[in-house]
Amino acid sequence: xxxxxxxxxxxxxxxxxxxxxxxxxxxxxxxxxxxxxxxxxxxxxxxxxxxxxxxxxxxxxxxxxxxxxxxxxxxxxxxxxxxxxxxxxxxxxxxxxxxxxxxxxxxxxxxxxxxxxxxxxxxxxxxxxxxxxxxxxxxxxxxxxxxxxxxxxxxxxxxxxxxxxxxxxxxxxxxxxxxxxxxxxxxxxxxxxxxxxxxxxxxxxxxxxxxxxxxxxxxxxxxxxxxxxxxxxxxxxxxxxxxxxxxxxxxxxxxxxxxxxxxxxxxxxxxxxxxxxxxxxxxxxxxxxxxxxxxxxxxxxxxxxxxxxxxxxxxxxxxxxxxxxxxxxxxxxxxxxxxxxxxxxxxxxxxxxxxxxxx
Length: 359
Fold this sequence. Notes:
Elements: E1 7-12, H1 16-22, H2 29-59, E2 63-68, H3 74-77, E3 82-87, H4 89-96, E4 106-110, E5 123-124, H5 130-142, E6 146-160, E7 165-171, E8 174-179, E9 186-192, E10 195-202, E11 204-208, H6 216-221, H7 225-234, H8 242-254, E12 265-270, H9 277-280, E13 285-288, E14 290-295, E15 300-304, E16 308-312, E17 317-333, E18 337-338, E19 343-344, H10 351-358
Parallel strand pairs: 1-2, 1-3, 3-4, 4-5
Antiparallel strand pairs: 6-7, 6-17, 8-11, 8-15, 9-10, 9-14, 11-12, 12-13, 14-17, 15-16, 18-19
Helix pairs in contact: 2-5, 7-8
GO molecular function: NAD+ kinase activity
InterPro entries: ATP-NAD_kinase_N, ATP-NAD_kinase_PpnK-typ_C, NAD/diacylglycerol_kinase_sf, NADK
Pfam families: NAD_kinase (PF01513)
């Protein structure tokens, strides 16, 4: 069987216990009692899956290299036909940040679905049936039983003449900027699509892509059943249904989510200080193509996709632009199941594996 992917990079997540020990922390009696065994088991499960994928690729004639996410560099990705993330969403986001070319596809594999959801991942491997699932997954790769879809990314740019630095990063989910001290008000000015929106005071600003709109942005903007209940009370509706409130809140909140291949961004002033609702609401959030942020923070920080952090202060200016030309090429198996929140692709276990799981 001729391989369509000759050079594959396998990026392995850093497990919880690996992160814990890397920081030089010690297991207290309390942590050892409630966390240690589960962390060790999760570590074992993950590395078994990584080893299984690596070994089976070698047997099927695919040149595969394994690298830890913490050691990943831009040069590791260059020249590869396919990059496979084995782990969870955080590893997927970090790895995507190193893939600038829209020609290198990325596949996300959830190595432990019992412990993580993996909203961005396109396949999952169950430990109990991985000896059957992994070979079939590789066979599908070699047999071209897959398709591609694209996630639009944002381009973050910051020029810092004082420090002599220039930062340019691709963002798949969201960018967040605020004071490091969460009890301090974050102050900044916004220019949206070349229109000056003025100055804001809030707990920070979120700038999200379509992919990220079902994550942090969704949580920040979601309507709760309690919110729906309060509105009904104000309308004089006393006999309320809990189920209706839950369904209404979910329906309204789902409108916050937009397609992963959208060419637009969404900016949201989080927990803003409002002195004039009429002058504030229309400026504080909305769709756009480019956001310019002029910082007035004293000791601030910005975060890109949860893994990249950079200090910011008064006078620092950065832009975030929708960049469909840098879309991330993603690989999935079978037919996509499309929902308003995201496109989820599951590589289902075989009937034999399902029977084994039910035993």
